[in-house]
Amino acid sequence: MIKVSLFAEQERETKLDKIGDALSKLAEHVDFAALAAEIDEAAPRPGRERGGRPPLPTELMVRVLVVQQLYNLSDEQMEFQLLDRLSFQRFVGLRQSSQAPDRTTIWTFKERLIKAGATERIFEAVGRQLDRHGYIARGGQMIDASIVPAPKQTLTRNEKEIVQQDAMPVEWSPSKRRQKDVQARWTKKHGKSYFGFKLCSSVDRRHKLIRRVHVSTASEHDTLHFERVLDCGNTSRDVYADKGYVDGEREQRLGEKGWRLHIQRKGQADKPLSDCQERRNKRIAKTRARVEHVFASLEQMGGKALRSIGLARATLHLNWKAATYNLRRLCSLKDMGPAAF
């Protein structure tokens, strides 16, 4: 016979705390009120001049988007889980409320950030909190890029030619235009074709925290955004990168500015690498491999796929993804303590 208790909710929450709730650690270490204040500054809450229901608190919505990125949920699934899942309700602050954000509310909040040009604000705000916790960028940095696939598009040859000119065929209806991603691009990597965007980032060597990010179409070469994601706030001038970032002119220019570039070399059919260069590549690879741990974590959080259309929404999604990774990494660093470093 199943036991019935008037205190079932409290008993379940107590057991949840004993087992260990990852979201409770986030709530403990992260100042979500400060993050919400920065979001409101960059994208002010809409007024009620036209009447209607007031928007939900920004802090609640920030927590919702963090959970959504952490568990790779669509807006529809996020709505369902907020109604169904105890740990989500407790983290977001809805345990005693019958009101929960639906899929439209979540989408509207994201669009508000895009229209206000605040797609990168959350990542920057999280970075400032990392600094306040004492996790400043140290030990050099690793730069790399990862392809983020988007839903593939089926176009005729004529439509492809028009899209490549950053235009849309006139015969497309408004509904069809909303479903066609004309900004995502094709690229090849190791002989395999990919369609979507690219996340270029700089990760600090010591803490494995993402310090700078840039989102572009997949067809843009990694090396174009090398200096854009170069983190000048790192306490070390060492920079590690793979063979895709070889550029003699840039290396000379940055070297004259004091940067120490550790970029792997690539051989050619008529000019293979020397033994010395091979050993150097291996030394660099041992350090540069740490950035792959970060991309693996992003992939576990669903960072290798997009449900949205367009560069603006991809930029929003990936900035929140990187920010959420940093928050999760912050909790891990706190658990390890200073002895780990």
General description of the model:
Belongs to the transposase 11 family. This is Transposase, IS5 family. It comes from Thiomonas bhubaneswarensis. Pfam families: DDE_Tnp_1, DUF772. One of its GO terms (molecular function) is transposase activity. The structure is a single chain. By secondary structure, the chain is α/β, with parallel strands linked by helices. The chain has two domains: 105 residues, no CATH class; 171 residues, no CATH class. 47% of the residues lie in helices and 13% in strands. It is built from 13 helices and six strands. Strands 1, 2, 3, 4, 5 and 6 form a six-stranded mixed sheet that branches. Helix 11 links the parallel strand 5 and strand 6. Helix 5 packs across helix 7. The chain is globular, with a radius of gyration of 23 Å. The mean pLDDT is 89.
